[in-house]
Amino acid sequence: MTRPVIVNISLGGPESDYDRQATLLGHTFRIIRVGTSGDVEAAIDVARTWSERAAAFAFSGIRETPGGALLDITDADVAALRRACRRVPLTDGHRLADVLEEWSIRAVQTEYPAHFTNARTIVLGGGYKRAVAVLASFTRNIEYVPVKGERPNPVIQAAKSVKGLADEFAGKAKEAVRDPLAPALWAMGKIAQPSHKGQDVVVGLFDDIVSAGPSELSGITVISSAISPEREAELAERDVDMIVDTTPQPFRNVTVVTAVLEAMMLHHRGKRKLDVESMLTAIEEAGLQPRMLHPNGPRRKSRFAFVIHPLSTQYFRNVEPLGSLTKVPGMTPVIEKAAAYFPPFVYGRMTGITSPTGAEAEGWLISVGGTPKELLAHSPEFTYDRLLEAAEIAQGLGAQVMGLGAFTKVVGDAGVTVAQRAPLPVTTGNSYSASGALWAAHEAIRRLGIAEMDADGRLRGKAMVVGATGAIGSVCARLLAMACDELWLVSPETAKLLTIKHSIERENPRASVHVAAKPDKHLPEMDMIVTATSAAGQKVLDVMRIKPGCVVTDVARPLDLSADEVAKRPDILVIESGEIELPGDVHMRDIGLPKGVAYACLAETVVLALEGRYERFTVGREIEWAKVKEIYQLGLKHGMKLATISGVNGVFTEADFARVRELALAARAAQEAKK
């Protein structure tokens, strides 16, 4: 039986020619490739030679000519080629390519959620139009780069021109509005670091990618077609992360272009042109599948952004050229007010974050200029505007999730409005902050060595939560109910208090839970206290009644205990936060913590990125107990460790713990002596 012959007439060179047998759709085909090195007349001669024996012709290689020059194929050339084919079907595979390109990209986005979301993408040449259109639904970060011999795409060029004019107009408008702050903006420009935008995805023909693409392909996803084993090996050497081959390769002995597959389908269906129904049926019958290659093993590298801001005017003194300006009498408050109007800027990049699971993450710290005083002095909308500007920057950098730090997460409705308006998912980090604070408190009790703990780390003593009916307070109460012998819940909201007490007792029948409207009567008995009120500066408890050696964790923002109140009791330990050591060889610009250490709210953003959870995890003032547990477990999974314990004066040292221990034991001895 004579096998149907598929002839691939290619304008590429003859070095990739083949003559093979291949089975598809129940037919065993003879498939032949003939390269003509860009000679259109030679291609027409090939068609004439095979027109009596071929079942279908596949035409390809316009971008595969020697030297990479783009041939100017005219309508007359195509007509001449079709005449040479006589009655034999001729296809360039574009109908099938459109389907396969979109299918391949959507398959990746499904299997690796948000892989292309906000991805920084370079498109080499005007091919892969369907692929680019699909990518545009996931990311705005697409840059078109013409390749050798290619005329500029008028649609893309027009879009770029319009965007350029719009950006220039917007820049001039901002400059006019902010002109009074020009010196401050100049200073901000000196402080800001380059964005290190980089690339995540490269789209194009293989030859264009290796010759005209980015010089550094490490960690990049390549979208191309007809990737042979040799091409895969070369991309592997360049440390490419993923190869998306938009042409399925169902044959072991040969690599084919899409036009060849379409030509086979034409023969199978007995048609000169495939309609959509015939194409879908053929794809299904042939068992074609999207082709995703991992030449260096499966890896996932996520991208995040995190918003920071100066916590005090000390920041301005430590950063030039603002430091010099603050030395001028009266300039510090002026700089503080002016800085609140700074447009957000990239403060620094975070790299080297690597989970024990193999997942990787990189991110950017984006700064807004307001101190807590200035953020609280303006309307919430003032801060929202700056955070949304930061979100636009984050999206442009390729971030898939953004976290809010310090006071940016408590202004107004605590992230709800920003999360609703931002072009990417937003989290405040409060779930991990609550978890980290109690993690730090537990470790502080252990390191002080005064209160008794059993072999499982359970506190053999009493703990109290002040503000137990609030969002954070109720979460802390549930955590502590599992970690101490006796728990006291304090709040003036009596009905809510009783509801939480009974809820905890249902969840944990062994818990010993008591309630009180005020804390002072029971303070002398407590080994650990958590304050989580919204008192905003009002006196929450009498520090002079607290038991010597007690560990107090202040998770309220603003803090429940002022520095002056804390100073009255050097024999107790007042904790503000627990900082997290990130996994890997982390590199980041100084944020006032040891190398590789991050605030818990930043760590939550990193954990979500490592886990591939690009979502609104924690927003608003209500914190879900389930999410606090979940983010803690995910943190352990990805190698997060408790790094430091901080109070009003910064990170506690071993000397601090020793001093508090000595003073506490002395105070307890004095109390015993008075009895």
Please explain how this structure is put together.
This protein has 675 residues and is an alpha/beta fold. The chain has 23 helices and 27 strands. The strands form 5 sheets. A 6-stranded mixed beta sheet has the order 7-6-8-9-10-11. The protein has a 6-stranded mixed beta sheet with strand order 16-15-12-14-13-24. Strands 19-18-17-20-21-22 form a 6-stranded parallel beta sheet, covered by helices on one side. The termini are far apart.
Summarize the structure.
With 675 residues, the chain is α/β, with parallel strands linked by helices. The protein is built from 23 helices and 27 strands. Strands 7-6-8-9-10-11 form a six-stranded mixed sheet. Strands 16-15-12-14-13-24 form a six-stranded mixed sheet. A six-stranded parallel sheet has the order 19-18-17-20-21-22, with helices on one face.
